[in-house]
């Protein structure tokens, strides 16, 4: 396959990719291979003394995982403190020069030296690093959990799960995720939504092309006021050929930011930070007749599902949606007649 490949490279590759694990060489053996001799530096190559144990992945219980963490911390502390003790012993074995009588007499006295003439603060308690003690890390873990639990409130229907206003521990992350997922979906199903679609046909005698109609919708995404009368102002924050980010203000006083994706030549989607999702679609039927369709999915916060207020609100929004589609087609045709879509 590679007639000019280095024979040593092929030999190394074959040993690394050996199908039989018993014949497959280790990383240390690969580093010692002649092909890598020019880069081989034992002093700069860490060696893994043992295979990493992934047995913790089989532990499912909170208590079991807690104990694994405690055991790991204990092992780490033992290793670190053993090194610290060895380093301290080495320092104690270093010979220290003994000052002469003249050196002691001539050494400067601190202005804050005690009246008895002492010149050393070695025996003073303040500022000294305490000696390490062999403590139980499980106690620290329990204290951490207790601190994280302070100020938490149960908002999950009395099921014992908690929202946290402090960082979650690893033990509580899964419970917290389940709690928020359940509550968000419960709120979603209890919330009222306006879900509606409306279609208007293009005039049969209209000469407007598909591309021109889509260009009108692109113009609507940038400057929507003439197309949707309820919009008072619009500011384009970001734009390219397939995406527009805009900030709009409605005449009702509501402001929202929308991410608009343009899929020429037929579809534009509007995703609002309020949770609303709207589409503008140009389509045709089997007879070649063209249509303009808007779909609306809008949350109605504060409106109780099934209430009279919901029915009234949806009726108003239905009429407004019909008007927006009809007005958008009207402006599109006017722009075409005025030559603004060429």
Automatic annotation (TrEMBL):
Q: Does the keyword Transferase apply?
A: yes
Q: Which molecular function term from Gene Ontology is one that the record holds?
A: kinase activity
Query: Where on the tree of life does the source sit, at the highest rank?
Result: Eukaryota
Q: Name one Pfam family in it.
A: AtaL
Region annotated Disordered, chain positions? 86-134
Alphabetical keyword list: Kinase, Transferase
Q: What is this protein called?
A: Pkinase domain-containing protein
Species of origin reads Thanatephorus cucumeris (strain AG1-IA)
